[in-house]
Amino acid sequence: MSQRIKIKSLLQSGETGFETTVKGWVRTFRNNQFIALNDGSTNQNLQVVVDFENTDPALLKRITTGAAISATGQVVASLGKGQKVEVKAASIEILGDSDPEKYPLQPKKHSLEFLREIAHLRFRTNTFGAVFRVRNTLAFAVHQFFQERGFVYLNTPIITASDAEGAGETFHVTNFNLNNVPKTAEGEVDYKEDFFGKATNLTVSGQLEGELGAMALSDIYTFGPTFRAENSNTTRHLAEFWMIEPEMAFCDLEDNANLAEALLKQVIKEALDKNADDLEFLAQRLAEEEKQKPQNERLELGLLEKLQFCLDHDFERLTYTEAIEILKNSSQNKKKKFNYLIESWGADLQSEHERYLVEKHFKKPVILTDYPAEIKAFYMRQNEPDAEGRQTVRAMDILFPGIGEMVGGSQREERLDKLERRMDEMNIPKEELDWYLDTRRFGACEHAGFGLGFERLVQFVTGMGNIRDVIPFPRFPKNAEF
Ligand code: 4AD
Ligand code: MG
């Protein structure tokens, strides 16, 4: 029996005049003759031509949308348009039937909302096939970027006792029987009795442990799932998302921003190079979606142009203080069109402000630095107060068109006294983070890092509007299907 070949290789090579076997799922079957077969290796379907006059009618009936089949035959030049080669089937075997009356994916356009409900089958659509192949390319490209630069891939714990961001958005992890929770004499939950002997949660970020690694290995990165119990029902938030967190010793905020910009550009370029077909398809999908919108709400650039634009231009860099001036003086603010008006320095930036800066004002990715200490985490390096006595920290957020915050990072406070003072001010329990403070006691040095939200990156590159459509099985409030 001839070996099975993947459809992508068959179509790419364009060779003809040999016998082969292909396996995949039937997308459509036309005129009892033409099967559009897809095996997920590419967005392109392979045309398999059936000699219906010499095929058992009972078998023909079983070639239905969704069925898994194996087809063996000669690879020949195709007369049909849209493909160079096709397979003239000498034999067809049904590997798995699919009852067309019951199969939820009909050969027609389904809404993304509907497909989300059948996420176990949506991989079989053109859109999701493309999205998850692009996601795969981006993940590999992230590893490649760091590996080329000698970073050590470090796996930080998923179960932890710390809340790295101090935002109180952790999911608890417990082995208690919730109907009978052990209590202390004072009536408090007695975590000493729990599996780990203390209160634990799912990690919100691997940063603190990542810093420990960087203080010995120089450059590390994590790439793993993180969990946030923020009750945000938006198109940009998940309760479980993947984050890439590099941490570098002997590195300041500018090096940090340079690294993030280089990373983003390299992985976007990889996707453009490796997934041209998929991105072409997604670009068309997006263009059609855009046509449904009123003219003035449409995107200025198509997906491919947008990605190329991002590669060709330096990201805009400015401080929070400069951004506040722009926002304060914007017509949007003056005409009171923001939901949250920018009145004074110190205001936290809402997504509407971030999007104004990148989409309306600069029209490109923006790196915002030096935020007020008040609105940022405890570990960020403190600047000298400015002339007006305002306290900022060496933070950086990278904002992207259509996405808002893609990256959050900072230079870290390596000075023990300043770090401890800030922890006290913010009520961060020092005893519990004694291990973290040790890096400031023994061989502390300048260091920095950032967190890149992987799904937001996939969203940007694929042009998908909802973050729930770029992760196989999204977790969000009131949903943990599959
Ligand atoms: O800005 P964040 O909260 O930063 C940190 O966690 C730092 N400890 C990172 C570091 O310096 N090592 O999160 C980083 C990024 C955000 O910019 C965003 O892209 C993404 O993670 N993110 C989310 N993505 C999807 N759903 C959510 N709920 C997200 N929350 C943050
Ligand atoms: Mg952030």
In CATH terms, the superfamily of the largest domain is: Bira Bifunctional Protein, Domain 2
- CATH second-level architecture of the largest domain: 2-Layer Sandwich
The level-1 CATH class of the largest domain:
Alpha Beta
**Largest sheet: number of strands, sense, barrel closure:** 8 strands, mixed
Low-confidence blocks of residues: none
**C-alpha Rg (nearest Å):** 27 Å
Sheet with most strands: strand arrangement: 6-10-11-16-15-14-13-12
Q: Roughly what percent helix?
A: 25-40%
Number of strands: 16
Into which percentage range does the β-strand content fall?
15-25%
Series of secondary-structure elements, N-terminal to C-terminal: HEEEHEEHHEEEEHEEHHHEHHHEEEHHEH
Total domain modules = 2
Average predicted local confidence, pLDDT: 96
CATH topology of the largest domain: BirA Bifunctional Protein, domain 2
Topology:
Blueprint: H1 7-13, E1 18-30, E2 34-38, E3 46-50, H2 57-61, E4 68-77, E5 85-96, H3 112-117, H4 126-148, E6 152-153, E7 159-160, E8 172-173, E9 200-202, H5 207-217, E10 219-227, E11 240-249, H6 253-274, H7 276-291, H8 303-312, E12 316-319, H9 320-328, H10 331-334, H11 351-361, E13 366-372, E14 392-400, E15 404-411, H12 416-425, H13 434-441, E16 447-453, H14 454-462
Helix pairs in contact: 4-6, 4-7, 4-14, 6-8
The structure holds 4-amino-1,4-dioxobutan-2-aminium adenosine-5'-monophosphate and magnesium ion.
